[in-house]
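User: I'm writing a tutorial on reading structure tokens. Could you give me a worked example: one chain, its sequence, then its tokens, then a sentence or two explaining what the tokens reveal?
Assistant: Sure. Here is the example chain.
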Amino acid sequence: MNLSKNRTGLALLALSMLVVVAGCSVISRVSPVTQPIPTQTPIVIVVTPTPQPQAMVPAGGISEEQSTIDIYARVSPAVVHITSRVVVRDFFWGDQSQEGTGSGFIIDKEGHIVTNNHVVENAETITVNLSDETSIEAKVIGTDPGTDLAVIKIDVPPDKLQTVELGSSANLRVGQRAIAIGNPFGLDRTLTTGVISSLGRPLQESQNSRTIYDVIQTDAAINPGNSGGPLLDSNGKVIGVNSAIYSPSGGSVGVGFAIPVDTVKRVTASIIEKGYYPHPWLGVSGYSLSADLAKYLNLTVERGVLIAQVTSGQSAERAGLRGGSRRVQVGNYVILTGGDILTAMDGNALRGTEDMVKYLETKTKVGQTVSLTILRDGKELNIQAQLGEQPRDQ
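And here are its predicted structure tokens:
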């Protein structure tokens, strides 16, 4: 429930990001600057050989330049160009076919390709172009809009497929090299480089109310058409899937976002096995506590989730959690109070509903048993709950 407009001064602050799907490029030219030569003194011109710049070579290794060249030669054949065609039905003009392009990468010799959900969403047909210019139709194995991931498949002999190596996003550090390969503006297998500029970002797309957690931020140039392509580390291993940019102009301004590869591995493995990804679910709804709200409701804790409702037949109800029992006016709103206060999951303190959802999404899976620390009638209790599967329409 939104408490942002109540008269008691309680506020919840939300951070949103603009996801841009179209843009333009600007090319600027730099003119040489000439200085006048003074005539009062003689000019002596001495011609000396100009030393050529040498690449910095680390001890016992190759240069960064050569490393990037090698990575591109090894990984780019596994990056594909995806063209999706969507039929838009219009009352006046009839059916109209629209075409969009994106990127993807081959993960196994069976022809499975990872890309973004928004690259193939609602597509009537999907065409994949390989690095040898082979063009072949693909089928969708499954999608997960909640993480903006999808797996498609092509029927190609294994010896024609070059695959990527998946790395890990668990131990990434800000400042590490980041290499993106994709098809920006339809320009096949374009390489851009940069660094990881931040970690742990939450990303919420305007068309999707769900949040993708622990997103990688990079300044490697990402533009429309890069979506679904790999973000690589300095060893050429995939650390993320390039998915979105923040841009007031529509082009790259050095703030791009990639879904972390640990999320990619978890979700795509399930999609290949089941055709979809089951999101773990506790089956509660509630409010994030704050110091002001706790004081107003005369609660003994200032952080946690005040449980308002418990979904019938789901994990929370089976575990014995209690929802609100009475209605209280808070400013312009009426909230349910009197229910349990969830303060921790598996010993991890929760500041509010966002922490609860993030923990479920990133640290748990369907069927897993979690330990819930709750406050009920002023007493702290520990309750075990086996997580269920979130309905796919929520």
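What the tokens reveal: The helical segments are 64-75, 117-120, 261-274, 291-297, 315-319, 353-363. The two ends are 16 Å apart (CA to CA).
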